[in-house]
Write a structure and sequence with these properties.
The protein is about 15% helix and about 25% strand. It is an alpha+beta fold and about 80 residues long.
Amino acid sequence: MIAKSFERIHRSNLAGMGIIPLCFKAGEDADTLGLTGHERYTIHLPTNVSDIKPGQDVTVTTDTGKSFTCTLRFDTEV
């Protein structure tokens, strides 16, 4: 899930359900990036789960060829 921000409890609940909470970078959102919500997204995460770090940046690519960076909102070690 990609959002502008998350409340702590919502972020924790998402992670507990296996959903990756991602935040747009400052000054970016779906409108500024020209996203409609109909795209398919590929989230480029490290292959090894131990390489996933709290607050790291990840690249997201859409099926329309757009690419942007989001912040991974796991705020504690995986």
